[in-house]
């Protein structure tokens, strides 16, 4: 959740200072961000699809025999950050929505700070809701067979989203 929020904050701040507008104005910049984001999602999906499933419960610590445990906090934060910050749809969305809430007669930094705090507060609540629901479903999804199915489903979804991102076109605005 921390990594996702850092990604959202980065996108909002970049869009707020106008770099997001460059992505909309520049076909090359938009295409680069789109391709990097699509490739990253496909890579994440492939990694999830092929993720090993052993007999341990999800999130169990690594065992002495070299089993894989939960990634470190640093790795999880980085993964969340990169997932959000490389999403061109997120950038385009923020650039499209942000101007509606900006009053040019007032200080930009204060407005961006309020928007940032509001966005992060709301998103943290939503993400904790998802985490709560996932924790409740964990006992039903704890078998190796269920985890393999999860890896295939969510890996497939990530790869499909990445492939679909290649089809995203800039609006003619």
Summarize the structure.
69% of the residues lie in helices and 0% in strands. By secondary structure, it is an all-alpha fold. The longest helix has 30 residues, at 108-137.
Q: What topology does this entry show?
A:
Layout: H1 2-16, H2 19-25, H3 27-49, H4 73-85, H5 88-97, H6 108-137, H7 144-165
Helix pairs in contact: 1-4, 1-5, 1-6, 2-3, 2-5, 3-7
How would you describe this structure to a colleague?
With 173 residues, the chain is mostly helical. Helices cover 69% and strands 0% of the residues. It is built from seven helices and no strands. It has helices at 2-16, 19-25, 27-49, 73-85, 88-97, 108-137, 144-165. Helix 2 crosses helix 3 and helix 2 packs across helix 5 (88-97). The longest helix is centred in the C-terminal third of the chain and has 30 residues, at 108-137. The protein is globular and about 60 Å long. It starts with a helix and ends in an 8-residue tail after the last helix. The relative contact order is 0.21. Residues 57-67 have low confidence and may be disordered.
């Amino acid at each position: 959740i921390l990594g996702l929020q850092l990604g959202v904050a980065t996108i909002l701040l970049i869009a707020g200072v106008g770099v997001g507008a460059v992505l909309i104005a520049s076909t090359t910049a938009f295409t680069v961000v789109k391709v990097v984001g699509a490739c990253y999602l496909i890579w994440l999906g492939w990694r999830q699809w092929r993720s090993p499933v052993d007999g341990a419960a999800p999130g169990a610590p690594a065992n002495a025999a070299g089993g894989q445990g939960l990634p470190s906090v640093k790795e999880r934060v980085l993964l969340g950050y990169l997932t959000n910050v490389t999403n061109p749809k997120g950038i385009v969305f923020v650039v499209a929505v942000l101007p509606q809430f900006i009053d040019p007669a007032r200080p930009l930094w204060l407005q961006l700070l309020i928007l940032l705090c509001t966005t992060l507060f709301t998103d943290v609540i939503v993400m904790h809701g998802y985490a709560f629901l996932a924790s409740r479903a964990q006992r039903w999804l704890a078998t190796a067979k269920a985890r393999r199915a999860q890896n295939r489903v969510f890996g497939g979804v990530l790869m499909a989203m990445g492939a679909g991102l290649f089809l995203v076109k800039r609006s003619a605005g």
